[in-house]
Amino acid sequence: MADASDIVISEIQVGGTDSKDEFIELYNNDNDSVDLTGFKLERKSKSGTKYLLVSSAKFSKTIPPKGYFLITHSDYEVKYSADLVYSSSGYSIAPDNTVVLSDKSGSILDKVGYGLATDFENSSAVGPGDNKSIERKLSGNIMIDTDDNSKDFSISYAPSPGEDPKIKPDPKVYPDDVILSEAVPNPDGNDEEGEFIEIYNGSGKKENLKDWKLSDKSGKEYAFPSVEIKPGEFLAIYYKDSKITLNNSDEEIKLYDPNEKLVSSVSYGDTKEGYSYSFDGAKWKWTSSITPNAENQFDEPIETKIKKDKTVYRNTYAEFEVNTNKKSAKVVWDFGDGHKSYKAKTKHKYAKNGKYKVTAKISGGSEDKIEEFTIKVEKFPEKAVKIIGLAPNPKGKDTTTENIIVWNKSKKKVNLKDWSVATGWKNLYNHPIAKDFILKPGEKKTLGRNVSGFALNNKKAKVELRYPDGKIASKTKYDKKTETVKEGEVYEKTGTQWAWKKTVLPNTTRLAKAELKPVEQKNNIQLASAIMQIKDSDLIIPQEYIGKQSIDNILPKQNIVVASYRLNNSTVAEKIAEGIFSGMAYSNSTNNINLTEIKNNDESFIKKYLGGINFWMNKIMLNFI
């Protein structure tokens, strides 16, 4: 006896004079007989459910070399001279089934799916109608088996159970470019009146559609009567003629030529009411233009541009934005972690590290557009930024002048945007830094309440500078016990120790004496003289400006004397004149700023204007000289 592996299913008829007029034919490609004892024959429905046809207990006999073995329903055993019948008279095959043959070990020898079957070898064979069969192609005395049902089988209009396929004339060749072009499954109003399927003849010659067929996913078919379609012509087939009801979701439409060859097909998921699903020559699209018996028309496509953060950190808000040419477009973000947003510009915080597939669905009329990308979420890297000073009770209004001094100890620029300042005592309240706050390498800088809306208690407080993910970058606390913070008193860190001190502007150096020497005209600025005189050591010059001016001696008086500057840049001159000094005259015609001598023994007046005068004198010299 030969190996059973050469046994194939060679022909299947699903129905003839009635639903039991069916057969399944086997063929032995081997040169030796094969014992079929213990074999099993089953069918599988489109839903995947298996049903027995011939049990292994009732499967017997042998199949001769290069010979056939015919299995039928018991009602047709005599008509077809069957070798074996189904194990029960209640067993039967049906359209869109899969027939499976297994050997006595249970191994599958062959399977054939046809019509809309969901299980097949590579692709399903065409479904045979009544009084037709699907027949495996024969080459010499070998049945062809490429493990592709659609290629191995063809329709037979003259079934030949138990015999070699009858020699038939070559069938008529039909054009492949008579195609589906439009479908309206969900029209406005009554579906039965508005639904249609449209055909387009792109063949270049007129074609009679007699015996062409349309089918839907349920298997409902419509056979065309004798009707001609001219080259370049469209033909709409409405429900009243086809009786094909198109689903409003999950549908498939197929067009077959008279040889049962699938010529054109289209499928869709969800529909849009009042829209047409149309072919543009390359792909199918939804459009608001419904054009039965006419060329398809399409809406302006959605154009989008995605903006997103380059780096995304865990427990830190990342920003996402989609811009589109459709003003009324609706956006649905899916962040890949089970969360969504329905805003075009939004932000999202990921709880875990990893890679996430982000999807933005943009709906703007007839067509939806899907944008997809992958982001990597990482742990936020620690930055060496420390709190080195606090001013809980500065002179003036606390709401505008309270500040924290921070120091970037790293060698890289740091932006504190999305960081936060937390303040309180028993409970700390978080105050985000919502805008850019740049710290250069090594820079010390004042962070005020205009940047983060924190508040510092005048008796005691805990203060934390937090990373965007909520972890602490730096912290400190103070407790005056029974006292309160004096006005102008600051809490500073020197080395490892914190102490209360007199007011010192951030990033500054105290100088006992200071003189700004006259400077020659340079870059269109004439500095006539610049002398600053102040008592004691209250004069403060920003540290980054030290080295730009010489420092000699100072007169023991509370006088500030500033002569005149000449600037050819009127905009800069005007800006300085508007808001910095008292007793200032500005001449637009000459671009001169003249400051008359200011004499005042009021120490508070001196301190009030000292910072502004000192800053702008240095600013002018550094930026324009």
* Count of alpha/pi helices: 7
Order of adjacent strands in the largest pleated sheet: 8-7-2-1-11-14
CATH class of the largest domain: Mainly Beta
Please indicate the percent range of residues in DSSP E strands (runs of 2 or more): 35-45%
Low-confidence stretches: 504-611, 618-625
Counting DSSP E segments of at least 2 residues, the number of strands comes to 53
CATH topology label of the largest domain: Immunoglobulin-like
How would you sum up the major sheet? 6 strands, mixed
Q: Roughly what is the average pLDDT, rounded to an integer?
A: 82
CATH architecture of the largest domain: Sandwich
Helix-residue proportion: under 10%
CATH homology superfamily of the largest domain = Lamin Tail domain
Overall morphology: elongated
Please state the structural category.
mainly beta
Please indicate the count of domains: 5
